[in-house]
């Protein structure tokens, strides 16, 4: 069945297409009687506006692209929910693509979204991304791009992040406050800025507490779809390399859950023998035994905020207004659970 057109409504009422169009849009120069007749006929014929044609006239596709490293991931799934909830309020569809932490895949996806005519892109960079021409090429088309979570500092665009360095510092300080004196770090891959900042926060907390930084206590996790296995593997290796470690700050909760699982299997008691702090506050963090102390990362809020930022820039470009880039830093919080001990009395802390 073919969609009903404005011409069909006009023919039925013996009026012009222009009059029908204006009546449906409530133009003041059309009488109330004509508006009522047109709207009643439109309802009878089950008329639906051609969204594509409307968007084409407005030079908008009403779609945005979202590129993330992983979809099946608690943090990113929360981000997606926040973006989609906000996008729906503004009548936007979201094309969701997964880069699988691949720079080459990310480049192809940027080109795909450009060819689809999206109005803008939200992106959390892949671990393998070290060059950014594909991002600047997109922005050169006068289309906005907003980064969130994993960003590139050298790209001039809006960014929605947390203070990873501060959050990591708080996590490591908590381990110190609970009596840990030999603290390891399971960090993320070398390139992502958030991985770098969490490592630097960990290191600074040690130095500020007059504790030596030992690079042999830092283990790298790519933090992809094998995060759980990486947590188990690195925990196993840590026990072989360093039997004096009494605390670990871990880059993501999934890696931390893998580490706790390995410790449980090997009879290492958490937190009596070794304390563990994770990062992101995944829902499994509260049900693992012992439950995981972690940094709460506001994924849903980050998604909502990132879309609002992108939407504002879409409108600025459409209205030929100057685009002012923003750097929005969201708050985090330490969630204390059973994988760490109670803090020592202040007088006993070193």
Question: What report would you give on this structure?
Answer:
- The termini are far apart.
- This protein folds into three domains: 6-49, no CATH class; 58-162 and 299-331, Rossmann fold (3-Layer(aba) Sandwich), CATH 3.40.50; 164-297 and 334-348, Response regulator (Rossmann fold, 3-Layer(aba) Sandwich).
- It is α/β, with parallel strands linked by helices.
- It has twelve helices and twelve strands.
- The longest helix has 20 residues, at 299-318.
- The mean pLDDT is 92.
- α2 crosses α3.
- The strands form two sheets. The protein has a six-stranded parallel beta sheet, with helices on both faces.
- The relative contact order is 0.12.
SSE map:
Elements lengths: L5 H8 L3 H8 L7 H13 L6 H7 L5 E6 L5 H16 L3 E6 L4 H13 L5 E3 L9 H7 L5 E4 L9 E5 L1 H14 L5 E5 L5 H16 L9 E3 L6 H15 L5 E4 L2 H13 L9 E6 L12 E4 L2 H20 L8 E4 L2 E3 L15
């Amino acid at each position: 069945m073919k969609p009903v057109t404005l011409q069909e409504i006009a023919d039925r009422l013996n009026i012009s297409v222009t009059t029908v169009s204006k009546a449906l849009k409530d133009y003041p120069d059309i009488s109330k009687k004509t508006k009522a007749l047109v709207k009643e006929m439109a309802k009878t014929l089950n008329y639906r506006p051609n969204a594509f044609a409307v968007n084409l006239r407005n030079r908008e596709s009403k779609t945005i692209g979202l590129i993330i490293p992983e979809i099946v991931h608690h943090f990113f799934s929360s981000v997606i929910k926040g973006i989609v909830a906000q996008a729906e309020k503004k009548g936007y569809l979201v094309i969701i693509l997964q880069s699988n932490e691949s720079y080459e895949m990310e480049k192809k996806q940027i080109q795909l979204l450009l060819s689809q005519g999206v109005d803008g892109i939200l992106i959390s960079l892949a671990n393998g991304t070290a060059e950014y021409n594909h991002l600047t090429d997109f922005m050169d088309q006068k289309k906005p791009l907003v980064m969130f979570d994993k960003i590139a500092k050298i790209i001039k665009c809006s960014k929605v992040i947390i203070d990873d360095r501060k959050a990591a510092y708080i996590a490591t300080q908590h381990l110190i406050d609970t009596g840990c004196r030999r603290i390891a770090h399971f960090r993320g891959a070398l390139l992502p800025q958030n991985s770098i900042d969490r490592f630097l926060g960990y290191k600074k907390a040690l130095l500020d507490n007059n504790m030596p930084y030992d690079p042999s206590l830092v283990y790298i996790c790519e933090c992809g779809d094998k995060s759980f296995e990486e947590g188990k593997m690195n925990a196993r290796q840590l026990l072989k390399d360093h039997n004096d470690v009494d605390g670990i700050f871990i880059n993501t909760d999934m890696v931390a859950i893998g580490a706790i699982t390995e410790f449980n299997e090997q009879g290492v008691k958490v937190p009596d023998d070794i304390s563990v702090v994770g990062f992101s506050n995944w829902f499994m963090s509260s049900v693992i035994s012992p439950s995981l102390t972690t940094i709460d990362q506001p994924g849903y809020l980050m998604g909502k905020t990132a879309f609002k930022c992108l939407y504002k820039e879409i409108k600025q470009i459409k209205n030929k207004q100057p685009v002012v880039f923003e750097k929005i830093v969201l708050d985090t919080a330490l969630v204390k659970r059973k994988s760490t001990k109670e803090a020592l009395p202040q007088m006993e802390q070193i």
